Amino acid sequence: MTKYIRHPNTTCIICGKPIYKRKVEIERNKGRVFCSLICYGIGSRKEKPCLECGKLILAGQNKKTCSRACSNKYRSGIKYLVDRPKDKVKHYQSIKLRLIEQRGRKCERCNYSQYEILQVHHKDRNHTNNDFLNLELICPNCHCEEHFLEKSWLKKKLERKER
After folding, report:
1. What's the pTM?
2. How many Cβ atoms sit within 10 Å of the Cβ of residue 138?
3. Which of 15, 85, 92, 142 satisfies CB 3.0 to 4.6 Å to 138 for a cystine?
4. For 35-79, how does the pLDDT look when each residue is reduced to its tens digit (9 = 90+)?
5. Per-domain residue ranges of the chain
6. What are phi and psi of 56, to 5 degrees?
7. What is the Cα–Cα distance from 65 to 24, expressed in whole angstroms?
8. Could you tell me which of 71, 66, 34, 74 has the C-alpha nearest to residue 48?
9. What Rg, from alpha-carbon coordinates, does the chain have?
10. CA separation for the pair 11, 2 (Å, rounded)
């Protein structure tokens, strides 16, 4: 009895090896046929070029560069201290300085006088509303009382025990 040998009717789109695939499979996959799982894995990769050297890297890892060396070269062109429009730290520092100049160097609730640790509190709890009537300069203790006292797990547990 002679052994039946299938003759290749297409080629792998990665390595070019001649292979046999059923006509239905070729149509269903729109001509994207592979000879093995390794070629399928290579064909399924989503890659993008490194911003510095152009070498292909995996796109799903949120990387911009392929190596530490390329990363250092890429970052060397960024001016960190010049024109920082999205720097929230600098923005809130300037707000705090203006509040200290306008309202003094004390907590507005308890008159605590260590101004270095005072914090800016938004009365309506909307961090985008930086209107000076909405802002308050308070110490960390008053700030913690404002935000966490009403939701305290300890307060709830002690109230249950008293009942």
Report:
1. 0.45
2. 21
3. 142
4. 999 999 888 888 899 888 989 888 877 788 888 888 888 887 666
5. 7-44, 46-77, 88-148
6. -75, 135
7. 41
8. 66
9. 32
10. 26
